[in-house]
What we know:
The chain is built from eleven helices and 20 strands.
Amino acid sequence: ANLMAGTRLGIPIFLGNPRWGTLECEQVARLTAQVQPQHQHLILIPTGGSSGEIKFVTHTWKTLSASVWGFQEFYELGSINSICTLPLYHVSGLMQLCRSLLTDGELVPIDFHELCNQASVQIDRLEIDRYFISLVPTQLAKLLDLDLHWLARLQTILIGGAPPSVELLTSARTAKLPLALTYGMTETASQIASLKPTEFLTGNNSCGIILPHAKIKFNPIPDRDLILENRIAPLKIRAKSLMLGYFPSLDFPTYFEPDDVGTFDRQGYLTILGRTSNKIITGGENVFPIEVVNAIMATGLVTDVWVTGVPDRYWGQAVTAIYVSKDMSTSGDSLASAIEEKISNYKIPKHWLPVARIPRNPLGKILEVEIRSLVAHL
Length: 378
């Protein structure tokens, strides 16, 4: 209600996570203090930044609507009904609201824990085959473990936020779940590529094809719109749903360059192969190591630390800290407690590995091969 009222009044809307810690709230306060008259009619969605600072992605109803119309055309739908378990301050939750709102569909918000524990009470009241649900791989793995009978009856299960493991996709296919793997981000107002469930069930594990409102090119951009089969390269994205910039800047990028590397096959299906940065995606949330490193160093309990991600069935990647403690008795639990109120829970490492030294070269740069060797057993 506040979102809609604020939009009608033309004031800038900042979506916020109520679980932000003190450091994150201070970052947000510094940003919101920079509001200027030219920032009217903006909807600002939080995301992480490569520096570890929170950034707000600038959207308008025009960009959000373009995402909805592209989704609607791709899936050949009238009304879009959604069961929403994701937070509305997250782009994947917000876009479910927008899809239902703009297409006269129904939005059924259900807390994910309730969905796991007593979902049948609400689910049994719905014509479940008319509903989409958006999940991150963490949530899908949990629901698969519970063996919920209604999952296979959904119209579509959208999966995004992090790359799902092959094991998870195989389990979903065995259960005949109508999965739609997707590719998108806050900067593009959610998905710009999607795989239809019928294609997934036949064995396709790609992100699908590009939605009607978007284009993806390789970097560097070819002279003409062209998908080059089997070429592996960083991507450039152009879309009607593309952000206007990062607040407070309104730089209206023509193409957005994420840190993703991908390839297209002969049929135009996109597969994301990795990232050019060390960003960790855990449970659909972006974590940048430098922010976690800074929080741990600020405790004064360690002399050195590095943060990385290790593959995890539930989380996609589990945040992992390798640290050199000042006192041999310093445990991972004590470090986790020390940063508990400083950063969001999903950024707190799930694995803590004490070592005598962090592998670095003479210039102090991390030796990635040695880091991977250290965490290989986790």
